[in-house]
Model the fold of this input.
Amino acid sequence: MSSLASLDVAGKRVFLRCDLNVPLKNGVITDDGRIRASLPTIQNLLERGASLVIGAHLGRPKGEAKPELSLLPVARKLSELLGEPVDFQTQGSAKILLLENLRFNNAETSKDDSERKVFAKELATYADLYVGDGFGAVHRKHASVYDLPALLPSAPGFLIQAEVEVLKKLTQSPVRPYGVVLGGAKVSDKIGVISNLLSKVDVMAIGGGMVFTFLAASGKEIGSSLVEKDLIPTVKELIETARSKGVTLVLPTDIVVAPEFEIDATPTLVSVNAIPQDEMGLDIGPESAAAFSTEIKKCKTVFWNGPMGVFEFPNFAHGTKVIAQALTEVQGISVVGGGDSAAAVRALGFKDSDFGYISTGGGASLEYLEGKVLPGLQALGL
Ligand code: AMP
Done:
């Protein structure tokens, strides 16, 4: 497998797979982090005389051309950031063509290998070479991520290389103590990574909506908080594993509750032992945030994925802010894992440069830490 530097790209047409899956609100990009993260590879290829066909996805259109998931606003933003014209959907005179959302075609995400291969063959006719730089999609066995690189001379881009380098630091002899902080909505998304990391980390702190399944498994009353009841036995085993392996499992001791899931819901601070039956936990409390923060700052390697509460509602963003702040103070490597976590810390007023590294791929980095083979990395020989 070639490296980007060794690919002879001058005068060639390169199919570049990027992750441009940015958050949009009423057609306006609310966080352009993923577009910015794609720029170094794009600029390098242009400087070396290549022309580009960029393939990317937005959201989950499930094979349908949904106008609200069109990449047109991304084409405009990309052009603005590069200071270069970008053609969209059909080739014009620009050196860069951004294709429409690849997931508008069912074959991109198809589980049927032959269907995907037919689509990959069509994409291969657009270019001479392939560069894979869409880290946020490398855990997907999709046509443009997995099948296409097998059909053209290929190399990983700078973003994928940087992401893999950081993840290697977390998996191959991390400097200790090593701590992870996990939050977000669902435990089911994170069971794999929790169970794999329990044999690797020294500290694991858990917050967010997923913590209530942990609290329920510890026998606490959780009111109307988010819970995945079917996972309580699994979570009990994880708690036991943490104990037997000597991992410090940090759970909240106080919770900010509200009667409903609303931006203007009235917040009340309660002990974790006194969550009212008719209220739901929407953030970890200040005592918990301070305890999490103390543990984080003792670590030399920290990975964080998922908000500690409903940070989109200002009254329930405190826990996430405190954790983000603690990460900026780590004396060692601090990694914010995931496009959504990254967008969250930027929305809370932190700068990218405040952190050691901000990964663009939440699902991808979690699966990497879970020890899984990622199809898009495998296809690039990484
Ligand atoms: P994820 O995509 O799994 O990382 O989850 C992110 C989402 O989890 C955010 O949109 C948060 O609003 C949500 N979240 C965090 N804490 C809670 C909570 N206590 N109850 C409900 N949702 C939560």
User: Anything to note?
Assistant: The chain has two domains: 13-162, 173-369. The pocket of adenosine monophosphate is lined by residues 184-186, 189, 208-209, 226, 281-282, 306-307, 309-310, 312, 340 (CB under 6 Å). DSSP finds 14 helices and 17 strands in the chain.
